[in-house]
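Because showing beats explaining, we think one record worth quoting, sequence and C-alpha cells together, and here it is:
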Amino acid sequence: MDGDNRNRNTEREARVRRINRQQEAEPRRSRRNPERSSRPAPKEDNSIELKQKKLLIQIGAIAAAVILVFVLAFSLFGGKKDPSEITVDPNKVDLDKVVEETVYIDQTPISGMTLRQIQELISDREQHMLGTFRLGYSAFEQEYFLDAQALGITTNAEEIFAKLAEQGVKAADEAEPISEEEQKYTFRLQYRADSAAVLSALTTSTAALDTEPVNAQVDVIRSSDEDNLQESGKVDFKESIPGTHIDPQPLADLFMLAIENGDNGKVFVPEIEYIEPEISSEELSASFSKMASYSTTFKDSNANRRYNVWKMAGFVNGVILQPGEVWSINEAAGPRYEKYGWKEAAGITDGAYSEQFGGGICQVSSTLYNAVLRAELTIEKRSHHSWPVAYVPIGLDATISTGSPDFIISNPYDIPVVLLVNCDAKYDKKITVSIYGPEMDYTVDFKTNIVTDEAPSQPAATKLDPSLSPGTSKMTKERKNRIVVEVYKIKYDKDTGEQIGPRELHHTDTYRAQIGEISYGPSATPTATPTEKPTPTKTEEKTPDPTPTENEGENGGEPDIAG
C-alpha cells in the first residue's frame, strides 16, 4: 500500500511539473514567432496575470461540467424508483465503472462496486427507509401515526447518486482518486420533507379530533307503571362538555425536527386546547325552576277511562321544548285506535254520549292547557268542547280528537322548557301537569265570568225509534244552553302574593246551544220539550262519564273532542 501511495505521489508530481512546463512554454513560443500574431507580444510583466486568467478559465470549465452531471443525475433519481430507472448519460458516466476509491454509504463500503450496483443499493435503502418511517402523536388516550407518504417525505438519495456520478466522471477522465483521509465520499441517506406539506397533513389529521363544546342540557328521568297506572318524572341535567382543539403548527415543528434527525417512530404529546361551552350545567340548573302546575281529578271515572288518561299522560310526560320549538299533542300521541292500545270509554258523537276508543283523553289536554296558560307558553292552536266539562272551569278546557281538533303549543323562551306529568289513575285518580323553565318572579291565575247563559229558542228535535215500546219516549240528546264566558288573566307577585296591575281579558269562549233530541216509540205522541233551564253542572252529572271523547256539536259539524 505504501509503495502504491509513493507511486501515486510521484505520478502526481510529474503531472504537475508537466502542466507547469506547458504553461511556461506558451509565451516563449509567442516571442519566437511574432509574425503568427497580429497582436504585440505580451510583456514579461504580464505573464503572471495571463497564467491566472487561464487557470480561472480551466477551473470554471471543470465546475460547469460537474454541475451539468449533478443536474442530470438528480433529475433521474425520483423517490422510490426501480434501480433500472436510475440512469445517467452513458456519455458522461459509465454505469459499469467500478468505484475504486474508499466510499461509504452510511456504514456500508461501496468500493469495488459498479455505479449500477450502487443504484440498486441506494434504491433498496430508500424504499426501506420510506416504507418503515412514521411519526405519531398521542391525544385522548390514543396514538395517531402518519407515514412517509402522508407527510410527503423523500430522501437525499438523488443527491448522493449525483455526487457518485460526479466521481465517476473524474475517474473516466483519469482524475486521481480521493484519499480516504478526506472522507469526502462518506454519504448518509437522510430524510427530506417540506414544512408546508407536513403542516397540511397534520392539520387534516388533528382537525378530525377537534370537537365542538356542548352546552349543558335538560333531561327528564321518567317512571311509568302500567299495572298500577302510574306516570311520573323529574328534571335532570346533562353535564356540559368542553370542546377540544389541537394546534397543528407546534406539532409540525416537532415533526420537522424529528425528520431531520431521522427519529423514526417517535411519538409526541401535543398541547390540547379546551373550549368552554356557553352554558354550564351549574348555570342552567340555577336558571331553571318550576314555572307553573295544574291538577285535575277523575274519581268517578271507570277503569277504561282511567287507563286512557294514564296512557295519554305518558305522551306528555318528559316533553322538552327547545326555544322556538312547536309541539302538537296529536302528533305526539298518534291516532286513538284499538290497535294502538286505546280502550273504549264515554265520548260525544253528534251531540250524544257513546263509547269511543280513547275516551277521557281531553282531561289530559285540558289539564295541560291550564298549566301552559300559567307558564305563559305560546298557544298555537286550541279548541274548547261543544259544551262545558266538569273537571276544569268553563272556558278553560281544550278538546282534541284524532286528526282534529288539536292542541299545539310552542316555547317562547330562550332556554328549554319541560313538561312533567304525575298521574295516579288507580288510587288517587289525579293528574298534575308541571312546567319547568326560566324562573318567573310572578304567578299567573285565571278567572272566568259568564256573560250569557240562555236556553235554546227552538224545541227539541224528534225521532222515531222502533225499538222503543209504543207510547214511550226518551231524551236521547240533551239540551244545552248557549253560554258565553270571558276568561281573565291575573298576575300576582311571587313573594308577597299581591296582585300586579288590573286583570286582563285573555279570551272569550262561546258554547253553542244544543236543542236536544227526543226519540219516541211507534204510535206515540212525542213528549213536550222541557222548559226548565239546564245548567252545565247538571248536564255533566247526568252523563255516565263526565269526560266526552269526541263531539260533533248540535248540528253534526266537525267533531270536537271530549274526554
The chain has a mean pLDDT of 81.
